[in-house]
C-alpha cells in the first residue's frame, strides 16, 4: 500500500490526550495539524475552545473525548459533556462505551448509552465515534460492541482509548469490519507509531487513525512520495 503524505494525513486524528498536556503542547499539536492538514486534532474537553480557535481557516476538525477513558460515567454526564464540547467548537466526539455493562451482558444499557450521545451529537450535525476498548474484551464482546455501535446510531466504532493495557491491533480492526459490514466507519487508535503500522490498520479496514506520532509517520510517508 502507498499513499501520498497528503492522503495519509486525512486519515489522521492528530492526538494530544496526555493529562499533563500544557497550553504550549496543545498549541504545538494544532500547529502540526495545520502544517500537515490532518483530519482532526483530538484533545481533552478542556482544550476544545483553544483548539477550535487555533484551527480557524482550515478544514481540520476539532475532536474531543467523552466519558474518557473509562466509560463508566452516567449517560447523562456523557450527554452533558457532548453538548458542552459542541458548544465550545467540537466537530467530532469520541465516547467510551460502558464496558462493564457490555461485559455483564446488558446490551440494552450499552446501546441506550450510545444512542443518547449519538442523538446529542447529530442534533448539531456532528460526528460520533464510539470507543469499545478492545484490549478488555473477548472476540465475541468486540463483535457485539461493534454491532451495538451501529445499532446505537454512531458514525464510527473505535478500537481503543490508548490508556488501557494495549491499543489498536490489525486483527481487531478486521474483526470489527466483519461485524459492522463494508460501509460503516472504523477508527484505529493507540500504539500506532510507524508508517508500516498505519498501513496495516488501513489495509485491515480502518477509515481513520488516532495517532500522537503523526509527524513521525507523515515524515516517513514523505520520503516515499
Automatic annotation (TrEMBL):
Name-wise, this protein is: Deoxyribose-phosphate aldolase
Please provide, in alphabetical order, the Gene Ontology terms of the cellular component aspect for this entry: cytoplasm
Q: What is the lineage of its organism?
A: Bacteria, Bacillati, Bacillota, Bacilli, Lactobacillales
Kindly give the Pfam families that the UniProt entry links to this protein. DeoC (PF01791)
**Active site residues according to the UniProt entry:** 94, 158, 187
Under InterPro entries, the record lists: Aldolase_TIM (IPR013785), DeoC (IPR011343), DeoC/FbaB/LacD_aldolase (IPR002915), DeoC_typeI (IPR028581)
Name where it's found.
Cytoplasm
Protein role: Catalyzes a reversible aldol reaction between acetaldehyde and D-glyceraldehyde 3-phosphate to generate 2-deoxy-D-ribose 5-phosphate.
